[in-house]
Amino acid sequence: MDKIRIALIGYGNVGKAFADMLLRRADYIRDTFGTEPVITAICTASRGACIRPEGIDTKNLTDDMFDSGIDAFGVIDSGEYDVMVELTPINIMTGMPATDHVRKALQLGKHVITANKGPIAWHYRELRDLAKEKGVCFCYEATVMDGVPVYNLAQKTLMGCKITEISGILNATTNFILSEMERGVSFDDAVEEGRRQGFVEADASMDIDGWDASAKLTALMNVLMDEEITPMDIRRTGIGGVTPEDIRAAKAQGKWIKLLCRGWIEDGKPVGVVEPTLVDEGSLATTMEGTASYVTINTDLMGGVTVVEEPFEPEIDHTAYGVLSDLIRILTDRR
Ligand SMILES: NC(=O)c1ccc[n+]([C@@H]2O[C@H](COP(=O)([O-])OP(=O)(O)OC[C@H]3O[C@@H](n4cnc5c(N)ncnc54)[C@H](OP(=O)(O)O)[C@@H]3O)[C@@H](O)[C@H]2O)c1
Which of 114, 221, 261, 316 could be bridged to 17 by S-S, CB 3.0 to 4.6 A? Predict the structure, then answer.
């Protein structure tokens, strides 16, 4: 049987969840595409890499299978894969080293999937054009709203529509904190509760200061509106300055405070804004409780189309599915 060989650059929460989901859907891939999916390389920062051209049994992966002398570029150069999956931590300020990983794999004529939004927020157009030149797929569904089909929705099912505006709640952590504050919980206690539940990081500043939301809005504008901006171009205000008094004052006017993202074109130039915004009680934004998120894509021919990501357990499966759906897209395209 034909094989599709996969190299995972990064094997943390998402990498492990994806490897597990791939096992659960291997029969489906074999039956639908006549292809055997095999993970042939796994790379980490601390342990180095494990490369096995015959395939890795991820259920029985042990430290002694890793070679500490091989790094991400060693794996990418090895060529023992058809699809490189970029799953290293994001550097929102530079998009590196993920962009270099993606660029190198594309230059070698490999398909690339990334859940890391850095490359899309910083170098999307260059990487898209490189993939086209090499005749390979460059997929990134998990970079915004995990496996919810945002890019696929626009690229595959809203074909012919021009996207005029993108808006929504794109950061789960800040939405959780603001939802808790609506219930009378203090900012610090809400952050602590998020940490206890495992989705607020030790250093939550990238979320609280609006950087994560800005990177996601940038990624959406670059891909769906064909812009060439970076997170630095977004007018950004985080939620650190939102006080219980602000929430109470908003409530008195029948409003809630939400961290809204909005991107549009003005006088031919892209404008992106992330800021705490007053929204009417009962509006779509106020129905996003806890870690829920949504995006509305406004188009010239179809008006607004909205997708919602509802909380789900285990949450990491949403992201893993985003990566799996990209793999299936590659298999579909090469049929
Ligand atoms: N977690 C989510 O819910 C989620 C959702 C959407 C998108 N994402 C994105 O998906 C990516 C992965 O997230 P995650 O939660 O899986 O992160 P994670 O748990 O921190 O895992 C990151 C992995 O990358 C490895 N790594 C770090 N630097 C590396 C390098 N230079 N070369 C090779 N490997 C390197 C780490 O090695 P060690 O094992 O040695 O530390 C680890 O295995 C991130 O970009 C994140 O923004 C995550």
Answer: 316
